[in-house]
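Page 37, continued from 36.
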């Protein structure tokens, strides 16, 4: 390395990085570098490393409010322009159909303004929590700077890329500099499993993986779980397992014996670890099912529904009519493809809606007056109960579609 930063603990900067930190390349880059250096100091990073892409969270007006807008305005007014390919997390509304769906005008105008501010900095306004399905797809071993919890888990675990769970400001700073501090999950030794879960529970429904994640997340908290005994999994099973662990325990990386890439190539279990036996999932389902049998809304697509999931749901809805609102949330790009394949016509022909840009977690769902929302997302249940004060019913795709068709929840 070419030099030690004056205020650093053990962190070294190159000549170019030092120049940015000293303000020689403008105030925007200086502020971004200060954020990254401060983060590196906190976690004893020795250096910054280049990253292939960024996924930026902190988008919904529900979470940002006016202070968040003012924070973003400063960067735009001072000419911020990202260096790393960057995509955007979900917003709080469907940007195209907000009025039709009943979102308030004040909320929606502010939300669109936030997305516009990000776009002015060069961030692609994908408004999705599944960027890996829209071109922001890292390779095994790539260093990235992602922030949305389920996306971080999927990238680390299913793909084998390397990212910490960035906050909104640090993700933006990483995008502007094109680098991130080298600590945590960027390091080989920090990716070893800290606990082992031996799964004896029957995993027969797609909802079982989200339920398992709730139990594992609560046990391991911020650790790295290693699963044994799981059947062959579909990509959406990995997505739901990781999302629920991120919600219930802040898990950002997990391994599945013989299935995730690092678990296939080397021993990923640390010498000192805790072992848990999962005999059944009853406690998880009891925690997630707090609502009445009468369903007011069915919400699917948290994380955002993939083309495969949309196809499956459309097959279940073909020739039928829903009795209560059914919202399937996804990205605009995926919805556009679904429309070209005829899936959207089938879904909306049933009375259901293919919603884009948002999901129930970051939308102002509490303003709609729903008492009980049915969902196939354990993560969605977790946050709807805690953030939105909405009661939930949790199950698989088939159960949720049946609830939309009948207006009732059945086991």
């Amino acid at each position: 390395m070419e030099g030690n930063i004056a205020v650093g603990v053990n962190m070294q900067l190159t000549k170019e990085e030092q120049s940015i930190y000293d303000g020689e390349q403008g105030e925007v880059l200086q502020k971004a570098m200060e954020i990254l250096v401060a983060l590196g100091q906190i976690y004893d990073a020795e250096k910054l490393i280049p990253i292939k892409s960024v996924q930026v969270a902190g988008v919904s007006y529900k979470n940002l409010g006016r202070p968040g807008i003012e924070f973003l305005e400063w960067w735009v007014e001072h000419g911020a322009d990202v260096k790393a390919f960057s995509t955007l997390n979900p917003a709080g509304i469907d940007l195209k159909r907000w009025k039709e769906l009943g979102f308030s005008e004040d909320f929606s105008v502010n939300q669109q303004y936030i997305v516009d501010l990000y776009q002015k900095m060069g961030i692609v306004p994908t408004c999705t929590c599944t960027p890996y399905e829209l071109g922001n797809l890292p390779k095994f071993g790539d260093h990235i700077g992602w922030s949305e919890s389920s996306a971080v888990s999927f990238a680390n675990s299913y793909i084998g890329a390397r990212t910490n769970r960035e906050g909104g400001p640090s993700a933006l700073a990483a995008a502007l500099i094109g680098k991130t501090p080298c600590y945590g999950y960027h390091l080989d030794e920090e990716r070893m499993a800290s606990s082992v879960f031996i799964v004896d529970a029957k995993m027969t429904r797609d909802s079982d993986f989200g339920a398992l994640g709730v139990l594992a997340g609560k046990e391991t908290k911020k650790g790295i779980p290693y699963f044994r005994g799981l059947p062959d999994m579909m990509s959406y099973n990995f997505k739901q397992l990781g999302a629920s662990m991120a919600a219930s325990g802040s898990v950002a990386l997990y391994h599945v014996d013989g299935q995730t890439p690092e678990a296939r190539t080397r021993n990923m279990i640390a010498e000192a670890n805790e072992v848990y036996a999962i005999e059944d999932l009853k406690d998880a389902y009891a925690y997630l099912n707090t609502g009445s049998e009468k369903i007011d809304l069915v919400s699917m697509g948290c994380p955002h529904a993939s083309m495969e999931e949309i196809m499956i749901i459309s097959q279940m809805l073909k020739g039928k009519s829903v009795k209560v609102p059914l919202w399937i949330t996804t990205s605009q790009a995926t919805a556009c493809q679904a429309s070209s394949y005829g899936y959207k016509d089938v879904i909306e022909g049933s009375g259901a809606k293919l919603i884009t840009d948002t999901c129930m977690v970051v939308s102002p769902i509490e303003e709609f007056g729903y008492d009980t929302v049915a969902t196939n997302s354990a993560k969605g249940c977790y946050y709807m109960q805690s953030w939105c004060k909405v009661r939930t019913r949790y199950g698989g795709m088939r159960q949720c579609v049946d609830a939309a068709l009948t207006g009732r929840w059945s086991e």
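The longest strand covers residues 269-278. Flag for discussion at group meeting. The chain has 16 helices and 14 strands.
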